[in-house]
């Protein structure tokens, strides 16, 4: 059971406490009223911001005080660091934007409130609150972002893979880590740094990225590349090697980084393989027919070879990468298109044609060409389908037909004109002749030789001129225009005979106005059958030695030179002229050495000139007992002037001292004939100007290059 406490009479013991409390409150209120009245427009005592005591200052004064300190902070330099990169910024460059006025207003509001009690006790409690207010600031986002981008540009770098450099010696280059600025964290760090108005270094966070390829992956490749470059390589075919130059191996070797590996570029070996192909490649040889000494042979076919360059390059590239020193050359076989069996029948038919031969007929002359003679005329060609074609060589056929013509021909005796006592008349009788039409004969033989017999077409030679023509030309032949005589004294009898016969054939030849004179055509055939005898001519032997050799109609060149010289001095246009191999002294004319002319009818070498006037021209030629050869040009003197420049002699070569001795069965045994005297070599340049009455000129440049001549002696062995 609870018993009630007894009630005591007298004063309550709590009263003194409440009385003291009331007194204190009244005191505070009275003090607050005093302070409020004293700091009505000023910051209460004890209020501080940024370690600055602002008590007693007006808002404007506090803003100025704070502004000075914040402005000084904004001008400071902030060291921003990340990794091994350091940059310096002002806080303003990082976007720091403090608000001093708002911080002053916040300091002024410290201890003030909306209630009467707050207003009365605020001045008393303001000094007892924490002294510093948090700074009021802001960050300009575009400025902060620009600063972060600037830092990022300096900080960020891509990781570098380890790699292999192949030079004279393989070199492994180490990789490198990459760095990336953590931009979000960096922005937050900058904000925190500025919020605390810090002045020390600002360290920003970065993210490290590792390279994809490190040194451990590259080192084995470096070692392998070094082994390859130290090794020898060769392309082989049988027992024949072609070493691969180390420079080409080095140029072919390459490093690939995805994935890390070694590779070989085969194109680096292209020049080597191409050169090998040039040595090794050979075309396939088809079976073919050959004809020698009248016998037909079938040359068997041969397979060819071709280097497969692409396959060889690929194999070489793989071998280098694998360290295989010897690489077989890859070749492909080229098969011939025609084999020996396919030609057997053609060969047999050709042999029968050669053995049978072909008979060429002209009148009562028949010439059978067979065996080796016919075989030498035949040519074998291969058609597009590989089949052989058989034909006669037109160039070789010409001499054969010419030989038949020499047996058949009946030369025409052309009309000649005699000149005596200043009058012209017919010289002897004339008659028509018959000759083989050699161009038409060649075509006939080419078309029908397989038939075994070919009739050669023949034509009649021109007939003589009549008395009426003689009457027409007589007024043109007024007298001697030019003449010349050369000596053949000392010539062997055969040569003297030939000179006289050629002069006889030449005498009385007429060159009508505008016509061309041909020495070979005028003299006619120069064969033994035509009356000429063995003499000598200049030639070049198989060894390239210029020499004098026996030749039918030797001495003919003296006659040609004797005609050429008056033609030259008279000013007629020279259409064809050839100089001798050697300079011949007795052809010297009026002090000029280079005025000779050589002919060779069998080789088509001729002397030709044109009668480029309106008057007929007569050639009068003869020999006399003094062993002189004479030529006169009879006609009307042309209306032009002839001027000849002084002769230019150059490149003089001394005469050889050796004696050139030869033998010939064409002359009696023991007969000694002096063919040529020792003579110097030289080059002659003679220029002739023919000046017409109207002033225009025609120029002839004669350049003659004479070889030095040995003293040449021939001994007969016949």
Summarize the structure.
This protein has 718 residues and is α+β, with helices and mostly antiparallel strands. It has 18 helices and 46 strands.
Account of the protein in words:
With 718 residues, this protein is α+β, with helices and mostly antiparallel strands. The chain has 4 domains: 28-153, no CATH class; 217-340, Roll (Ubiquitin-like (UB roll)); 357-463, Ubiquitin-like (UB roll), CATH 3.10.20; 466-716, no CATH class. It is built from 18 helices and 46 strands. A 4-stranded antiparallel beta sheet has the order 31-39-38-32. A hairpin with a 2-residue loop joins strand 1 and strand 2. The longest helix has 24 residues, at 15-38. It is elongated, with a radius of gyration of 63 Å. Mean pLDDT is 83; it is low at 127-131.
What is the element layout, followed by pairings?
Elements: H1 15-38, E1 48-49, E2 52-53, H2 59-74, E3 78-82, E4 85-89, E5 96-98, H3 100-108, H4 116-126, E6 132-133, E7 137-139, H5 141-155, E8 163-166, E9 170-173, E10 178-181, H6 183-195, E11 202-203, E12 206-209, H7 215-230, E13 234-237, E14 240-243, H8 246-252, E15 253-257, E16 260-264, H9 270-280, E17 288-292, E18 295-299, E19 304-307, H10 309-322, E20 326-328, E21 331-334, H11 340-356, E22 358-362, E23 365-369, H12 371-377, E24 378-382, E25 388-392, H13 394-408, E26 416-420, E27 423-427, E28 434-436, H14 438-448, E29 453-455, E30 458-460, H15 467-473, E31 479-487, H16 493-506, E32 509-511, E33 516-518, H17 519-523, E34 534-540, E35 546-552, H18 556-570, E36 573-576, E37 608-610, E38 617-623, E39 628-635, E40 640-644, E41 648-653, E42 659-664, E43 672-676, E44 681-692, E45 697-706, E46 711-716
């Amino acid at each position: 059971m609870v018993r009630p406490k007894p009630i005591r009479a007298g004063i309550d013991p709590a009263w003194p406490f409440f009385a003291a409390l009331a007194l204190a409150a009244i005191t505070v209120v009275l003090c607050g009223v005093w302070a409020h009245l004293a700091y009505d427009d000023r910051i209460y005592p004890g209020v501080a911001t940024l370690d600055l005591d602002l008590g007693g200052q007006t808002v404007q004064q506090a803003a100025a005080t704070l502004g000075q300190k914040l402005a000084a902070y904004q001008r400071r330099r902030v060291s921003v660091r990340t990794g091994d990169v350091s940059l310096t910024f002002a806080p303003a460059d990082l976007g720091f934007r403090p608000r001093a006025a708002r911080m002053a207003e916040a300091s002024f509001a410290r201890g003030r409130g909306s209630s009467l009690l707050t207003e009365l006790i605020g001045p008393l409690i303001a000094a007892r609150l924490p002294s510093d207010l948090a700074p009021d600031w802001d960050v300009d986002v575009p400025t902060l972002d620009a600063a972060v981008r600037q830092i990022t540009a300096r900080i960020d770098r891509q990781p570098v893979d380890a790699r292999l450099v192949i030079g004279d010696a393989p070199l492994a280059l180490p990789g490198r880590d990459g760095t990336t600025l953590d931009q979000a964290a960096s922005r937050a760090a900058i904000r925190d740094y500025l919020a605390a108005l810090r002045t020390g270094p600002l360290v920003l966070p970065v993210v490290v990225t590792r390279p994809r390829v490190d040194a451990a992956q590259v080192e084995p490749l470096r070692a392998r590349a070094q082994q390859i470059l130290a090794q020898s390589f060769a392309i082989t075919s049988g027992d024949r090697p072609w070493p691969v130059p180390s420079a080409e191996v080095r140029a072919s070797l390459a490093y690939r980084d995805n994935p890390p590996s070694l590779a070989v570029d085969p194109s680096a070996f292209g020049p080597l393989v191409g050169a090998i192909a040039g040595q090794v490649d050979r075309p396939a040889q088809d079976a073919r027919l050959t004809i020698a000494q009248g016998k037909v042979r079938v040359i068997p076919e041969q397979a060819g070879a071709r280097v497969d360059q692409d396959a060889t390059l690929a194999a070489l590239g793989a071998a280098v990468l694998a360290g295989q020193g010897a690489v077989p050359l890859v070749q492909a076989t080229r098969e011939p298109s025609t084999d020996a069996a396919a030609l057997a029948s053609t060969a047999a038919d050709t042999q029968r044609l050669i053995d049978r031969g072909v008979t060429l007929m002209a009148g009562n002359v028949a010439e059978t060409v067979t065996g080796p003679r016919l075989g030498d005329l035949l040519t074998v060609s291969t058609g597009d389908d590989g089949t052989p074609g058989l034909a006669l060589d037109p160039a070789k056929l010409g001499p054969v037909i010419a030989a038949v013509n020499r047996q058949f021909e009946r030369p025409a005796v052309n009309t000649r004109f005699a000149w005596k006592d200043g009058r012209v008349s017919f010289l002897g009788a004339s008659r028509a002749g018959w000759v083989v039409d050699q161009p038409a004969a060649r075509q006939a033989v080419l078309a029908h030789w397989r038939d075994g017999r070919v009739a050669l077409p023949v034509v009649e030679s021109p007939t003589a001129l009549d008395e009426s023509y003689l009457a027409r030309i007589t007024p043109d032949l007024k007298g001697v225009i030019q003449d010349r005589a050369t000596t053949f004294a000392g010539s062997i009898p055969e040569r003297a005979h030939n000179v006289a016969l050629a002069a006889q054939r030449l005498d009385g030849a007429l060159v009508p106005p505008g016509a061309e004179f041909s020495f070979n055509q005028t003299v006619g055939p120069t064969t033994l059958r035509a009356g000429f005898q063995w003499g000598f001519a200049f030639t070049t032997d198989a060894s390239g030695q210029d020499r004098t050799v026996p030749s039918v109609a030797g001495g003919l060149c003296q006659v040609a030179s004797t005609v050429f010289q008056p033609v030259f001095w008279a000013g007629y246009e020279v259409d064809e002229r050839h100089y001798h191999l050697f300079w011949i002294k007795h052809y010297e004319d009026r002090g000029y050495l280079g005025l000779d002319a050589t002919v060779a009818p069998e080789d088509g070498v001729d002397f030709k000139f044109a009668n480029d006037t309106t008057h007929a021209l007569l050639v009068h030629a003869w020999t006399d007992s003094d062993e002189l050869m004479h030529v006169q040009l009879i006609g009307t003197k042309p209306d032009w002037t002839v001027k000849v420049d002084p002769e230019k002699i150059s490149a003089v070569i001394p005469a050889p001292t050796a004696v050139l001795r030869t033998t010939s069965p064409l002359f009696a045994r023991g007969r000694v004939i002096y063919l040529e005297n020792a003579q110097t070599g030289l080059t002659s340049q003679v220029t002739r100007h023919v000046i017409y009455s109207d002033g225009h000129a025609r120029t002839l440049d004669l350049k003659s290059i004479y070889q030095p001549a040995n003293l040449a002696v021939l001994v007969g062995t016949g």
